[in-house]
Amino acid sequence: MPKTKPPKPAGADASKADFACPADASRDLAPDLRKASERARLIIETLPYIREFSGQTVVIKYGGNAMIDETLKQSFARGVVLLKYVGVNPVIVHGGGPQIGRMLKALNIESHFRQGLRVTDDATMDVVEMVLVGKVNKEIVNLINLAGGRAVGLSGKDGMLIRAEKKELAVESADAPTEIIDLGMVGEVTSIETGVLKSLMGSGIIPVIAPVGVDDLGRTYNINADSVAGAVAGAMRAKRLHLLTDVPGVLDRDKRLIASMTSTKAFQAIESGVVAGGMIPKLQCALEAIMAGVEKVHIIDGRVENCVLLEMFTTCGIGTEITR
Ligand code: ADP
Ligand code: MG
Predict the structure, then answer these.
(1) How far apart are alpha carbons 12 and 7 in whole angstroms?
(2) Which uninterrupted H or E stretch holds 302?
(3) What is the pLDDT, as a whole number, of residue 3?
(4) Which DSSP symbol is given to 216?
(5) Within 6 Å (CB) of ligand 1, which residues are found?
(6) To test the ligand 1 pocket, which listed residue (115, 117, 246) has its Cβ within 8 A of the most ligand atoms?
(7) CB 66 within 8 A of CB 303
(8) DSSP of 274-286, one letter per residue?
(9) Best substitution site from 245, 270, 285, 300 to test ligand 1's pocket, by max atoms within 8 Å of Cβ?
(10) For residues 224 and 283, what is the distance between their CA atoms, to the nearest angstrom?
(11) How many C-beta atoms surround the C-beta of residue 34 within 10 A?
């Protein structure tokens, strides 16, 4: 659902009128040239946005359908490369739940979920790491490189990028003592080694991160990709965090899209149960990212082609925007 974007910050708001084509001159052009002129006008209209985002870090959590559908995959990669060419520093964090599920099934390893999190024993952790780091990560790196960018894939172990610890899941209920659920090797981020990302970005490289963390003893953890994206965005002081998903955004109880939420509203949505399952870590990481200084977080529909570019470079906002 389109929403009106708030005014641009001072400095970024070079008025669109400054770039408008003199209508009289273009009216006399041949049809082909007029079409091309219109295209040129559309490009020039993105200048205020390019000025706003150039030199800034933008973290994108890539997952769901956008990672399966061939057309969406290609446009995603081209979009990321375009961002790089207009001076934005994109950082990609990817998921891979469905790919992990398929491999576990093929290997006859059973999976159980508690509160949307995959209970990860040692055998499952091996598969998670192999699929995310060995397969999914390299596929995305390949896609971006083929689209004309220079991407390098990393897991949390590379340069100790993602430090993690075991996640404790406490389940509270009114009539029983709080239960602590053992999720095995499911982890949460304790810190992000930003130096690794900065040196890659300084060399014009697009980092692509698999959500696998490591602790002080070298143990490997399976971490929700949204949480990693939020932690990376916060640690890198990113201007934006985009979380791509398979729904139009955050939906209210009547399944209507919530176009914009403050942090307080997002917190209430978690507490009141308006959001459930995989949407909980998205809002939680959005809150953490905003607390760490990220200006805005967008939960957007990855099924919409060029969704990140639409959100960043046009007046049409898509999905749910979360602000301070
Ligand atoms: P991914 O992380 O790949 O984007 P998830 O399945 O982890 O996908 O998270 C998105 C899912 O969260 C949606 O498909 C939907 O089923 C669920 N969800 C729960 N509550 C809401 C809500 N209020 N609005 C939108 N999605 C919700
Ligand atoms: Mg998820």
Answers:
(1) 10
(2) none
(3) 47
(4) T
(5) 63-64, 95, 226, 245-247, 250-251, 274-279
(6) 246
(7) yes
(8) SS-TTHHHHHHHH
(9) 245
(10) 13
(11) 14
DSSP state letters, 181-209: E--BSBEEEEEE-HHHHHHHHHTT-EEEE
Using one digit for the tens of pLDDT, what is the confidence trace for 21-61? 455 566 778 888 999 999 999 999 999 999 999 999 999 99
Nearest CA to ligand 1 atom 21: 275
* Amino acid 5: pLDDT: 54
User: Dihedrals φ, ψ of 211, to 5°?
Assistant: -80, 65
Other CB atoms within 10 Å distance of the CB of residue 164: 27
Residue 206 Cα to ligand 1 middle (Å) = 27
Measured distance CA(228)–CA(250) in Å, rounded? 20
* Span 95-121, pLDDT tens digits: 999 999 999 999 999 988 887 789 999
Cα distances (Å, whole numbers) of residue 39 to 17, 34, 44, 126 = 16, 9, 9, 49
- Are residues 238 and 59 in contact, defined by beta-carbon separation less than 8 angstroms? yes
- Distance in Å, CA 245 to ligand 2 centroid: 8
With contact defined as beta carbons under 8 Å apart, do 112 and 183 qualify? no
Nearest-CA neighbor of 129 among 90, 67, 205, 187? 187
Give, using CA atoms, the residue closest to atom 1 of ligand 1: 245
